[in-house]
Amino acid sequence: MFFWDPTFILLIPGIIIAAWAQHKVTATFDKYNRVGALSGMTAAQAARRILNQQGLDHIRVEVIPGKLSDHYDPRAKALRLSQHVYHSSSLAAIGVAAHEAGHAIQHDEGYAPLAIRSSLVPVAQFGSNAAWILLLIGLIMGLPGLARIGVYAFAAVVLFQLVTLPVEYNASGRALALLEGGGYLTREEIPQTKKVLDAAALTYVAAALMGILQLIRLIIISGIGRSDE
Q: In this predicted model, what pLDDT tens digit does every residue of 128-150 receive, in sequence order?
């Protein structure tokens, strides 16, 4: 019954927006990945220079497999760029590399939202894996307390997604400022690169919206807040 309950309708707007956001980021990246930066600098070179200028010479810039798998690993002190980005001198690639460098700078400065997000990782991972299991077991076995724990666990996932938003937008803002201020891109190239980073940010907004809608759905299914309980 849980797979056909009417609350699934709540998720439809989130599903549509998430699909659109994913299409948007892929299309925008592909478009500006065909536009080369006038500097001719590769994304890896740009990331390396940005990090060096910020006194982060100890952070490695590495190439990894996959598309749009770029990320900064604070534990390994490594900025990892996908093959499509690492060797490319396109506006899209340089923007992505600078964005990840922005995360490295956030970590070095102790940027508060990033620290909060990092502290939420274990709880969010538990919530992502256990929320539905706890909810369903609680409902099937008539244990409303267990069902509530499942909802609270998923609420931690949503909180993680919400905290992620300022972290990502701040990293993009830092990236654009560094790219323009450091002469990596011209003033005319910055708006095009911004479109790539804005499109990527939309995927995080869509994920947060989907999480909120799913949380509302779980609250309704679990019966939290009903006057008869």
A: 999 989 988 998 898 889 999 99
Q: What is the pTM of this model?
A: 0.89
Residue 190 has which token pair? Answer: 């910055």
What the block records as the tokens of 220 is 């309704």
Q: Are 106 and 170 in contact (CB under 8 A)?
A: yes
Residue 68 sits in which domain range?
Answer: 6-222
Residue 210 forms part of a structural domain: yes
- Of 62, 100, 189, 229, the active-site residue reads 100
Tokens of 228: 């008869």
Considering the domain boundaries, does residue 174 fall inside one?
A: yes
| 62 a catalytic residue | no
Sign of the alpha-carbon dihedral angle for 144, 145, 146, 147: positive
170 in any annotated domain: yes
Please count the structural domains in the chain.
1
